[in-house]
Write a structure and sequence with these properties.
alpha/beta, 18 strands, seven-stranded mixed beta sheet, 2 domains, Metallo-beta-lactamase, Chain A
């Protein structure tokens, strides 16, 4: 099975605590790393989790609140000190380049690699990045400033060759690629060997959705439907729902309601308010609605 893992570097909200770091995650797909958000202290968490700086080439910033992006200059500076030469790509709101480019020019004057900013429209659900194995889409969210979540979706994989069958029918190596992509095999005598006899289906592509920060919004449901794992903010419990509405955040029960309606496989709660020394109250609240719920925590790695 190919690696598709979520690493939690920080799952607290705006006020830092001794318990939680500010928002950041790293997706590991086949040993390529993709970062989501980069709050202060992210580079330290990156080291603690023994992640490889050189394998990180793309950073996705959900919005320009400080607890989601102020770790960028320090992280980039450290990459330069480590002698990185590969390009770094940052996907964020249009204002991100205006904010961070002058900082990088001042603090990282001799950076040995290029940093590219790619802007997206947070109000649209659209493809913003893809490579041979992965597509990343924006998820419009409902917050005090323009905000987008992200959907990470593996591309469909080729079927697996059944070696015993291809050997039996003496399938040439030159035709293996076509057979993996669905072609039948025609023997020298003209017999058609069905592709189903030569291959077995690949695993279904995996999907991960990140929704933080946001007020309750059912508009995300069609986008995140049936994902393998949903990270949804749960800043408040239901008793503080008025505060959640005021600050455009969600309660744990609202996150669970979204997970239920979107028929996701698992839900992970995060972006916890500092007012809750014990987040089990949030977990208990969510599990009443969506049993397949767990709490995020720093240094947690989840297989998707």
């Amino acid at each position: 099975m190919d690696r598709f893992e979520l690493n939690i570097l920080g799952c607290g909200s705006a006020l830092p605590t001794f318990k939680h770091n500010l928002s950041s995650q790293v997706i590991n797909i086949r040993d390529k790393l993709y970062m989501i958000d980069c709050g202060e202290g992210t580079q330290l968490q990156f080291r603690i989790m023994r992640l490889n700086f050189n394998r990180l080439s793309h950073i996705f910033i959900s919005h320009l609140h400080s607890d989601h992006c102020l770790g960028l200059p320090g992280l980039i500076s450290t990459m330069g000190l480590l002698g990185r030469t590969a390009e770094l790509h940052i996907h964020a709101m249009p204002d991100a380049e205006k904010i961070f480019k002058p900082l990088l020019e001042y603090f990282c004057k001799e950076l040995p690699f290029k940093v590219f900013f790619h802007s997206f429209n947070p109000q649209k659900n659209e493809l913003i990045f893809e490579d041979r194995t992965l597509s990343v889409y924006t998820i419009p969210l409902k917050h005090r400033v323009p905000t987008a979540g992200f959907l990470f979706e593996e591309k469909p994989k080729s079927a697996h060759i059944i070696r015993e069958m291809t050997d039996f029918y003496q399938v040439p190596v030159s035709q293996m690629k076509a057979i993996k992509e669905g072609a039948d095999f025609i023997t020298p005598s003209g017999e058609i060997i069905s592709n189903k006899r030569l291959t077995r289906p690949a695993e279904a592509p995996h999907k991960y959705a990140y929704c933080s920060d946001t007020a309750y919004s059912e508009k995300v449901i069609p986008i995140i439907e049936n994902v393998d794992l949903l990270y949804h903010e749960a800043t408040f419990c239901e008793s503080d729902l008025a505060r959640a509405r005021e600050t455009f955040h969600s309660s744990a029960s609202q996150a669970a309601d979204i997970a239920l309606k979107a028929r996701v496989k698992r839900l992970i709660l995060g972006h916890f308010s500092a007012r809750y020394p014990d987040e089990s109250v949030l977990l208990k609240e969510a599990k009443k609605i969506f049993p397949e719920t767990l709490l995020a925590n720093e240094k947690m790695t989840i297989k998707i």
